[in-house]
Each structure stands twice: as structure tokens, then as C-alpha cells.
Design goal:
Helix content: over 70%
Number of helices: 2
Number of domains: 1
Strand content: under 5%
Order of helices and strands: HH
Oligomer: single chain
Length: about 80
């Protein structure tokens, strides 16, 4: 039996996909995430090609990701400590 044939779509892991609304939201989020990563890769390539230095691509990537890496743990700690 092939791996695809033994794949049980009725398992609890796939239960949310029975909902049309969930499938639409999930697909939209997937497409959005693919677009975001395509932009990230394209921007790094563009910067490296334009400047001729890969180090500027690293600066651009750091500028994009460092704020979330710095503020994320602080925001998480605040969310855990503050009352809702």
C-alpha cells in the first residue's frame, strides 16, 4: 500500500478542514505567508545585486527581523503578567 493510500483524512488532525470557512482562512494565510517570504528573498537578492555586497542584505534582514525578536519577549512577558 502506498503512503498516500494509507493517509487517513478522517483523523482528528484534519477535522478543521471539513469547515469551508476554516479552509478559506487557512488557504489565505498560506498564500499570504508565501508572499511574505517571497518578498523577503527578493528584497535580499535585490539589495545584494544593487549594492554588490551581500552584507547589505544581512543589514536589511536584521532591520526586518530584529524588532520582533527584541519586542516579542517583552510583549510576551507583559501579556502573561497583566490582567485581561
Amino acid at each position: 500500500m502506498s503512503p498516500v493510500a494509507s493517509w487517513n483524512v478522517s483523523s482528528p488532525s484534519f477535522a478543521p478542514f471539513r469547515s469551508r470557512a476554516f479552509r478559506l482562512i487557512w488557504t489565505g494565510a498560506l498564500v499570504s505567508n508565501i508572499g511574505t517570504w517571497m518578498e523577503t528573498v527578493a528584497l535580499g537578492y535585490y539589495v545584494a545585486e544593487t549594492t554588490g555586497r551581500a552584507s547589505w542584505s544581512a543589514v536589511g534582514a536584521a532591520a526586518a527581523f530584529l524588532p520582533g525578536a527584541i519586542v516579542g519577549p517583552i510583549g510576551s512577558a507583559m501579556a502573561d503578567r497583566l490582567r485581561r
